[in-house]
Amino acid sequence: MFDLQVNRLSFDKGLQIVQADVRLVIDGEAVIEEPMCVDVGLPALLLSGLENITPYRWAGAGEWGRMPFFVCGCGDPECRAYSFRVKHVNGEEAEWTLVEEAEDGSYREHESYAVSLAECRRQLIGLGDTFLDFVAPLDYRPYFADTVPVVRELVERLKRADSRE
Asked: How far is CA 60 from CA 51, 65, 72, 143, in A?
């Protein structure tokens, strides 16, 4: 079971980040349950439904595919974050491994979870659509300037992948 709930989206105009209450439950275990910044890692999270992901929280904005999925409420991935390595095992399942990163690129693995790609993709599509609707009326100027077009493109790719299943 994979259940990702992102509720009560809010926009910090000064920091130019989107925050929300995040609850991630995998196989009955509450992996995340706290307020987090959700836009910094959203492109990487969406990409994980399509490709393998190896995080590196110190990557520059242009390496958006390596950001932790959820970061500290301040929006800085170096502060505190939830980083996952995602490996697609086959066309139906991915392995999500919670990792603790080191600046030299190494990491320590923690829990691993088997995640249904179909279930995950459907929830990622919903999150991506909700995010795009939320930021549409805002004067949103994130650090990674292409956040909105990248999220839009990834949601479309996820929809195509989901329709093939």
From this structure: 20, 10, 17, 10
